[in-house]
Amino acid sequence: MGTPILEKISLIPGKTSKMVLDAPEIAAKAKPGHFVMLRMDAAGERIPLTIADADPEKGQITIVYLVLGKSTALLEALNQGDEILDVCGPLGRPTKIEKTGTVICVGGGTGIAAMHHIAKGHSRIGNHVVGLIGARSKDLLLFEDELRSFANELLISTDDGSYGEKGLVTKLLKDRLEKDKNVTEVVAVGPVPMMEAVTAVCKEFNTPVTVSLNPIMVDGIGMCGACRVSVDGKTKFACVDGPEFDGHKVDFAELRRRLGAFKKQEKTSYDKYLEGVSHG
Ligand SMILES: Cc1cc2nc3c(=O)[nH]c(=O)nc-3n(C[C@H](O)[C@H](O)[C@H](O)COP(=O)(O)OP(=O)(O)OC[C@H]3O[C@@H](n4cnc5c(N)ncnc54)[C@H](O)[C@@H]3O)c2cc1C
Ligand code: FES
After folding, report:
1. Cα–chain-centroid distance for residue 74?
2. Does 39 lie in the same domain as 107?
3. Are residue 51 and residue 110 in the same domain, yes or no?
């Protein structure tokens, strides 16, 4: 039996959706930072998605995904009332959440949803949470209302200036770190160039930064080696040692190279899928 989809909401039509899944065993153990591996068909690959929220009482978890290629398109083809073939988790190490003071949680693109769960954890423990979220334009911003419901402050930037401050989210971060010397930690979840840029800003101010890495994952349980990343000169597997690491120690250049390694195969697979869909 698969995992039932209780609710599906389109956040950015055709691009990003949120699903609430009936997964009591996962919800009972899910903590901020955890992810699940999903498989949409028996012959297909497994893909990792962060648990964006969990409600152990209702036995529900929330996932938010960007439609990028074949597997996320197969997921997007499912609707409320359908079942996802396999949902395995929670996987990875949960976020280290300690009461430290002021924590800035930075989210970019779909990463805002994952960051939201981490920020909620910091808020629950009593940290002063400053959310910084950025997107290319207003219509691509996610989870603003959810973050407003618990964050002590929420600052927004858009690249085109259609909402919040014009520019990149790293500008908001730099301005804040210049003014506020009480920030104890920064957490960043989003595209790799954004997490790399956040880390560079934190370096200027000597501020600790945690980033959530998203290398290719195949099994998600430490057996295949696909998610290899270099942290502090040592090989780590993001699925079992992460996905969160000290940003100052991550080899971002290697991560970028490895993420691009299968672009051609991924495009072929997605094109074949779209061809199949258009031919009914
Ligand atoms: C720990 C973790 C958590 C993630 N959480 C989210 C999330 O909450 N929401 C979200 O939208 N995306 C998330 N991702 C990325 C997501 O897994 C990929 O977007 C997805 O696998 C794309 O698959 P596809 O077949 O649709 O696209 P493809 O065309 O196969 O790939 C498009 C791009 O997605 C990435 N990707 C492809 N396959 C994998 C894979 N097996 N593992 C990891 N990355 C892959 C690569 O960068 C690739 O270039 C997460 C990744 C990791 C590692
Ligand atoms: S995904 Fe296989 S070792 Fe991490």
Report:
1. 19
2. no
3. no
Residue 275 lies in a domain: no
Ligand 1 nearest-atom number relative to CA 65: 11
Do 67 and 109 lie in a common domain?
no
Minimum-distance ligand 1 atom for the alpha carbon of 66: 11
- For 45-62, b/e burial (b = at least 16 CB within 10 A) is bbbbbbbbbbeeeebbbb
Does some domain include residue 277?
no
Which pairing describes strands 53-55 and 46-50: parallel, antiparallel, or unpaired? unpaired
Give the CA radius of gyration of the chain. Answer: 18
The CA 48 to ligand 1 mean position distance, Å, reads 6
Q: What is the pLDDT of residue 164?
A: 93
Residue 225, in any domain of the structure: yes
Distance in Å, CA 205 to ligand 1 centroid? 31
* Euclidean distance between CA atoms 174 and 149, whole angstroms: 25
Structure tokens at 148: 């407003």
Beta strands 244-246 and 209-212: pairing type? antiparallel
pLDDT at 264 over 90: no
**Which ligand is in closest contact with the Cα of 258?**
1
Q: Whose atoms come closest to the Cα of 46: which ligand?
A: 1
CATH number at residue 155: 3.40.50.80
Q: How many helices (H) and strands (E) does the chain have?
A: 9, 17
Full residue range of the structural domain in which residue 45 is found: 3-91
Within 10 angstroms of residue 15's Cβ, the number of other Cβ atoms is 16
- Within this chain, do residues 181 and 138 fall inside the same structural domain, yes or no? yes
Nearest ligand, CA 238: 2
Residue 51 lies in a domain: yes
Q: Could you report the per-residue pLDDT of 154-197, keeping only the tens digit for each?
A: 999 999 999 999 999 999 999 999 999 999 999 999 999 999 99
How many domains, the chain?
A: 3
